[in-house]
Amino acid sequence: MILRAEPLTSAAFLPFGEVIECPAIPGRTYFEDALANLRPGARPSLSLTVKAPLAALPLRSTTMERHEFSSQSFIPQESGRWLCIVAPHAPTGGPDMARARAFLCGPRQGVTYGANVWHHPFTVLDREARFVIVMWLDGTKTDEEFVEVPPFSVELP
Question: Contact 78/129 with Cβ under 8 angstroms?
């Protein structure tokens, strides 16, 4: 299966979560969905990560993940372009890869995956990138779930 990355927009990404961008003019924008937690005993988790760029295009993978009870936000501190790959739930369980979508994110765009949204581990493209990650953890196996899916690749426009 081949996914063709499309530009990340708030409207296109809405079924999966929220796009995080600084306001275009002075002021503040609130992103309350970036803090969704469906487990009373979970604690907030703030982490920083540095990711190396993908070695070669197109991206090829067989992995998707979800955080069933927590949103997960990726907020770039320093970044080039990066990929956000999402899929709705299949009627039989797991991700519905026939309806998966790939978004090409700009260096100033972040995302919040809604709780229970299937997504691919985030992938940076142009250069090493630094991100802030916000989610909720309770230390159980429901913090994250990884599944194997049929092979897919992502091509850039």
Answer: yes
